[in-house]
Amino acid sequence: MNEKLKKLKDIVYEINDINKAIAVLGWDQETYMPKDGIAGRAEQISTLSQISHKKATSQILGDLIKSLKVELSELDQDFDDARLIKVLDRNYQKQIKVPIEFVAEFAKASSLGQQAWAEARTKSDFLIFAPHLKKIVELRKQYADFFAPYDHIYDPMLDDFEQGLKTSDVKAILDKLRSVQVNLVQKIKSKPEIDNSFFKLKFDNKKQWDFGVDVITKFGYDWDRGRQDKSEHPFTTDFGVNDVRITTRIDEYYLPSGLFGSMHEAGHGMYEQGIAQKLARTPLCAGASCAVHESQSRLWENIVGRSLPFWEYYYPILQKKFPSNLSDISLGCFYKAVNKVIPSMIRVEADEATYNLHIMLRTEIEIGLLDGSINVDDLPTVWNSKMMEYLGLNPKNDSEGVLQDIHWSMGYIGYFSTYTLGNLISAQIWEKINEDIPELNNNIKNGDFTELLTWLKENIHKHGAKFEPQELVEKVTGSKITPEPYLRYLTEKYSKIYDL
């Protein structure tokens, strides 16, 4: 190996190891850490974040990247090393603009913010979280200034989660989706309401957990390289390609919560587990983007997990596990129930037809927080107003409303729009998969997901972050990200369910 390349990779491996140690601390904070450990944990994460940032912005790394860009320029640019240099160069140019003092302050603020959010959510009191969110919003504004000039103050945050995406792009996509989805929901409202009241009976926690584990094991989640725990807000994290962890939350009186949460996070987890081992400990050992990552979780949760073929296989098994609740409920009624369209308070439990309306609400609020048109103190009122505007609902408390999601406490302002993009990509990929695997529905009906996961590994997972998101989607499907397949999917599916 080129001596310069070896030296560069040694530095990259060190940075990766530090970042994975930070991830371990973050996972523990959300799962098993005692409540009073937060102050010490915030300091630990802050210290490690500073060390990582120093290494990632060092002059020696910058010089190696600059030199290797020239030396490797004649290589096929699809080679792993050429792609690694390209990604490293982009990351380096961004990171050197961010002062290390800011990195330390932001790491501490987000750690404290997460703990405050958890307490505020438990007590349904936004005032507990408000001062922390003010700090985080102010820090994100400072962060944006490091990348001025920009078209919109929101752009630098978007670019962190979805490379090349602009605020204007997000608004255009949401505008295109809004009219079609609102129209679909209005048509559905005119139809008889589907009964899903049986979901709200008591379902034993342990049996729910075991059923979810069985499902994601069948999907292909590798338990030798992963585990599942409980957390306030389901998430996926990885400490390396061979240690990918997911969490879920079980609601004893709402069956879909834990099951679809597990399927969703398993989609993320299998993506990480499917990345080529040769990319380990480098920036290429990650998803192509948040939207591509979300496409995998939404594909398994919704396109597979809410499909009729899936329940043709799994519903008899579920009935045997909960006979007193489900023995009198037919497959057809159950299938319609898991796809019932009804505006709901909770984003992660929203149906496919209304889900993007939740994203529109959050994205508009994020943009407003940054451009100054929305104040943190006014958030509960703004949130409730937008919930009424988009979904016709009025949250009864802060936990059901403005405190619903963990993202802002983590500093993840700019993230929410990637959920909608993930929906679009999932449907786009699904059309291509069906072309390549004509027997796919029969496979799913028989509880066989092997060929599906193999296709995803070969076409999406193994590449990690080697290709840019638009590049990868076009490579796989023949076109860049487009909403048409998703709108076709929604319209066809719900036209059949509701006889539109």
Describe this structure in words.
By secondary structure, this protein is mainly α. It has 2 domains: 3-149, no CATH class; 167-498, Neurolysin, domain 3. It contains 21 helices and 3 strands. It has helices at 3-31, 38-56, 59-71, 80-95, 100-123, 126-145, 155-161, 167-189, 205-219, 255-273, 290-304, 308-321, 323-326, 331-338, 352-371, 379-391, 417-436, 440-445, 450-459, 469-477, 484-498, and strands at 226-230, 236-238, 244-248. The protein has a 3-stranded mixed β-sheet with strand order 1-3-2, with helices on both faces. β2 and β3 form a beta hairpin. α1 (3-31) packs antiparallel against α2 (38-56) and α10 (255-273) crosses α11. It starts with a helix and ends with a helix. The mean pLDDT is 94.
A few lines on this structure:
The protein contains 21 helices and three strands. With 500 residues, the chain is an all-alpha fold. Strands 1-3-2 form a three-stranded mixed sheet, with helices on both faces.
